[in-house]
């Protein structure tokens, strides 16, 4: 029953997740897109911190049945509020087949080199988020003290960094600078990953790790807000859902793929050297991608 529920949740998420960023540009002005995306990231980050804590408390007090029931009710409440959204209609062919629509989405992305580069950056971001997720238990066990407690502290720092950056971006607009901020944020992801590895080789102080993971997650939120805003601004309304569907599929593939790859690599290589090498690879890849992106912008301007 649990596995079946997970499959059904996954199928529904495949439709629901791309719809969120696709709807935002229809109900928000272009200059406010970055703030709107940041607010959704803030809610998501806050939920990732408060949800497990509240769930743990409620399970210990009332058991699993009550918690699952409350969780189910929350979806109905969410659906009720969504009924009040006034989303402008988009002209589409009601007889268009799903497979054709999916191919059209890929064709649209392949026709725009800027979108291809952004999609590649999406893969990079999600891949190394997956690498960190599988690496956190390894780091927690290497650090002094209790492994599970260390893991809890690291995840709290990770979530706190995400909430702080999302809250900041909901008030400080990056409109017009999304492409620059995207590449800067991904470069910082590589830089902080490099320092996470370097700290383990030189000075394994726990506080250093907490600060680095906080900054790492902040960079992820900045990158995520930037690429969502870029796609929303540079994609035609009737294609937004298809493009974000592809973006979602890239994210859904790259995170478990990273877990598989890093799970294997961590068995055979020193984790700290692996993090440092990965960080340098991200920085190099980001610089090259940024140069390609700027070159494409110059060509389009001419």
What does this structure look like?
The chain is mainly alpha-helical and 302 residues long. Helices cover 85% and strands 0% of the residues.
Extract low-pLDDT stretches. none
Beta percentage is under 5%
CA distance, first residue to last residue: 58 Å
> What share of residues is helical?
over 70%
The figure for the number of domains is 1
> What would the principal axes of the Cα set say about the shape?
globular
Overall average pLDDT: 82
Task: Give me some keywords for this one.
single chain; mainly alpha; Growth Hormone, Chain: A
In short:
Helix content is 85%, strand content 0%. By secondary structure, the chain is mainly alpha-helical. α2 (33-62) runs antiparallel to α3 (64-82), α4 packs across α9 and α5 runs antiparallel to α8.
């Amino acid at each position: 029953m649990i596995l079946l529920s997970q499959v059904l949740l996954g199928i529904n998420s495949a439709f629901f997740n791309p719809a969120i960023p696709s709807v935002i540009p229809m109900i928000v002005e272009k200059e406010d897109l970055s703030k709107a995306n940041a607010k959704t990231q803030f809610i998501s980050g806050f939920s990732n911190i408060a949800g497990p804590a509240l769930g743990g408390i409620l399970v210990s007090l009332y058991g699993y049945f009550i918690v699952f029931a409350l969780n189910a009710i929350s979806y109905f409440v969410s659906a009720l509020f969504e009924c009040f959204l006034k989303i402008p209609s988009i002209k589409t062919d009601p007889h268009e087949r799903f497979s054709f629509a999916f191919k059209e989405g890929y064709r649209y992305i392949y026709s725009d080199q800027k979108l291809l580069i952004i999609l590649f950056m999406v893969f990079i971001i999600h891949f190394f988020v997956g690498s960190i997720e599988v690496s956190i238990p390894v780091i927690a066990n290497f650090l002094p003290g209790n492994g599970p407690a260390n893991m809890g502290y690291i995840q709290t720092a990770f979530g706190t960094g995400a909430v702080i950056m999302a809250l900041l971006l909901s008030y400080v607009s990056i409109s017009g600078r999304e492409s620059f901020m995207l590449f800067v944020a991904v470069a910082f992801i590589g830089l902080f990953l490099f320092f996470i590895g370097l700290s383990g080789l030189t000075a394994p102080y726990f506080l250093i790790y907490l600060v680095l993971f906080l900054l790492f997650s902040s960079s992820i939120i900045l990158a995520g807000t930037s690429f969502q805003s870029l796609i929303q601004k540079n994609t035609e309304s009737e294609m937004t859902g298809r493009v974000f569907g592809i973006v979602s599929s890239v994210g859904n593939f790259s995170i478990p793929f990273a877990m598989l790859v890093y799970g294997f690599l961590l068995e055979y290589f020193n984790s700290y050297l692996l993090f440092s090498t990965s960080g340098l690879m991200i920085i190099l890849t980001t610089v090259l991608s940024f140069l390609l992106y700027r070159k494409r912008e110059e060509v389009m301007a001419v």
